[in-house]
Amino acid sequence: MQKDIEKVLVSKEQLEEKTKEIGKQISEDYKGKKLVLIGVLKGAFVFLGDLVRNIDIPLEIDFMAVSSYGNSTESSGVVRILKDLDLTIEGKDILIVEDIIDTGLTLSYLVSNLKSRGANSVKICTLLDKPERRKIDVELKYKGFDIPDEFVVGYGIDFSEGYRNLPDVCILKEETYSK
Ligand code: PRP
Ligand code: MN
Ligand code: MG
Question: Which segments constitute the Phosphoribosyltransferase domain (predicted)?
Answer without folding.
Answer: 14-159
